[in-house]
Each structure stands twice: as C-alpha cells, then as structure tokens.
Amino acid sequence: MAVTIVCVRETAPGERRVALTPEIAKKLSALGAQVLLERGAGESAYFPDAAYAGAGAVFADAPEIAVARADVLCCVQAPANDRIARMKRGALLLGLLAPHADPARVQTLLDAGVTAFALERLPRTTRAQAMDVLSSQAGMAGYKAVLLAAQLAPRYFPMLTTAAGTIRPSKVLVIGAGVAGLQAIATARRLGAQVEGFDVRPETREQIESLGGRFLDLGVSAAGEGGYARELTAQERAEQQRRLGEHLKSVDVVVTTAAVPGRPAPKIVSAAMVAGMKPGSVLVDLAAETGGNCELTRPGETFEQAGVVIAGPLDLASQGALHASEMYARNVFNFLALSLKDGALALDWDDELVARTCLAHEGRRRE
C-alpha cells in the first residue's frame, strides 16, 4: 500500500511557509506516494490548491482528518502537541521540531509512538547539503535582515554623488559568518554599502572577503567542530567585547546572526556598546528567536534606544515564503528520498543522516 504523505497549514504565529510545494508533491507522487493536503495549506506561500491538484495531490477538508491518515506528516515548525497526539503510532513527523524549546513536545512524541525527525539535527556533511534546511532558510533570513536594516536606516546604503554633494556609503557590520551572515554581507554589498564581517572562526575570513566584505579581526578565535563556533572563555569574551565596543562607535548598521543550534543565542552586543553607537544607527538581531545577540533585543519588537533603532524580527525566512518554501520542500524531499522506495517507507538506520536526525522512535528518545 502506498505511503500517505501529509501536509497541513502551519499554525505558528506569523508562519507563512509550507513544507510541501506542488513541485515536490509531483515528485513524491512519481515515487508512488499519495500526497494528502489540508485545503489551503499552501495559500500563505502563494501556492494555490489548483497547483497541488495538478501535481496529483488529494485534499482533506479538515486538518484532523489529514493528520490521522498520515504515514508521514511534513511540517515547517512543530505542530501543536494535541495534533501530534492524533497521529498514528509508528507514523513519521518531519520538520524543524525545536525539541529544546518544549520538553512537553518530546514527551508527546514518545507517548504517541511517533518517529520524529528533527531536521535541525541533520549532520553538516557534504552529502547532507541538499537536505540542510537550516542553511536554506538562513539564507533567506540573512537577505531579509539587510533589507529590513536598509528600510530602518535614516541614510542611503550606497555612495551617491549628487548636485547637493556626495553622500558617503553606509558602514555595515555583519556579526556571524554562517549562511545567514554571508547572505547578509552579499546583500549589503549589492546595495552599495561598505561592509565588514566579524566571526570568531578565523576560517571565515576567506568567505567574507570573497563576497567583497572586509574581515574584522578582533584578535579572538573560537574555531569549533562541525562548522560551529565553540563557546568563548570569560577572558576571551571580555577582550572581544572591549574591541567590538570600540569598533561599533563608527558603524552605521549592525546585523547580528550568531547562533548555536539547540542553545540560547550568545550575547555579543551589550547595552553599553549600544549606548556608544552613533545616533541614527540601526541594529537588526537575526538571533532574536533564540534570545538575541544583543542584550537589549526584544524578540518580535522594533524600538529606539538612545537614538539607536533595535529590531528583533522573528519571521524573516517566512517573509520570503514562496522561495523559502521551495527550498525547504526540496530539502524535505531529498531527506525523504533516502527512505522512500517504490511508494513504501524503508528506514535505513545504518545511514547516519537518518540515524542522527531522528529525535524519537518507538517511544524512546534518540540522542
């Protein structure tokens, strides 16, 4: 019997993305799966029901019906716990499940006997790149963060020569040179700003410079494993903050992107640093969802503090819902394709991508 792959509307506030697009629905159907959607599941990302129908998908009028029939439930953000409880025992849940954010969610998964794959746990290997949802979504978030900064800034980004005189380019500093940070650097450069990038991992210098940015060397290195930074010692952090605080006095726009998966965002920009920034400066904190890189950030709010505008957006990837959904759905398909054979599921627990991404299986949590 063909596996039933389900996608319903996202329920998290502000979430516009969808886990399956018509393109991926067609590919899954070609592999022998049945694709079942709640009506309107893709509307907020601008994918109408007619496009899904043309791709071979069928519809359920109520999400509860679809969820109860799912052999695989694909999501962007984790469903509500009562929805998870309605899933069949042994069914698969696949998405950004944020297990660290809600211990009750993990317990619900265990009680329901659901096999859960938290895509944020995917190993960062070359083979996994086509499935890396963190990277694909971070790229959109970095792009949108710079556009937001440009909108909030009371100045031009590019240098302009006009009859009224020459306007100097804005000086933009991007903190964190992961996927989001590098996209932010590239976007700020396209807008004509003078761009610097800072990361405690020295190996990012080449990447920053390849995008036209200048690497800001504060004399502190925190090279870690798996492409992530290690946590700084107290002495290292104090020296980093001293040097960064001095540098911020000359910066017009700061975009912070530093994050550690499964943990609160590191505090990099202190209140004292913000107080030292020029009036009219802007700080966009891309890490607001996990607490923020700035001590003053209020997740979900934009406000002014002593002449400095601080923004803590929560849904930047969702603001680019159409392209973000396309990338996310392709990531999901590439992961599912590891286990989908002739319309049936066959999980290969010897595959590290399957094994290490799994959060819960047969009522037991997997670490």
Describe this structure in words.
By secondary structure, this protein is an alpha/beta fold. It has 2 domains: 4-121 and 321-360, 3-Layer(aba) Sandwich (Rossmann fold); 138-318, NAD(P)-binding Rossmann-like Domain (Rossmann fold). Helix content is 33%, strand content 19%. It contains 13 helices and 19 strands. The protein has an 8-stranded mixed β-sheet. It is elongated. The mean pLDDT is 93.
What is the compact description of this entry?
The chain has about 375 residues and is an alpha/beta fold. The chain has two domains: about 5-120 and about 320-360, 3-Layer(aba) Sandwich (Rossmann fold); about 140-320, Rossmann fold (3-Layer(aba) Sandwich).
Q: Low-confidence runs (pLDDT<50, min 5 residues)? A: none
Number of helices: 13
Main sheet characteristics: 8 strands, mixed
What percentage of amino acids are in beta strands? 15-25%
Question: Which oligomeric form is depicted?
Answer: single chain
Strand order of the largest sheet: 3-2-1-4-5-6-18-19
Any idea what the shape is?
elongated
> CATH superfamily of the largest domain, please?
NAD(P)-binding Rossmann-like Domain
> What is the C-alpha radius of gyration, as a whole number of Å?
22 Å
Tell me the domain tally. 2
Distance between the termini: 32 Å
The CATH architecture of the largest domain would be: 3-Layer(aba) Sandwich
Q: CATH first level of the largest domain: which class?
A: Alpha Beta
What helical percentage do the residues reach?
A: 25-40%
Query: Would you tell me the structural class of the helices and strands?
Result: alpha/beta
Give the CATH topology of the largest domain.
Rossmann fold
Keywords: NAD, NADP, Nucleotide-binding, Translocase
Family: Belongs to the AlaDH/PNT family.
EC number: 7.1.1.1
Function: The transhydrogenation between NADH and NADP is coupled to respiration and ATP hydrolysis and functions as a proton pump across the membrane.
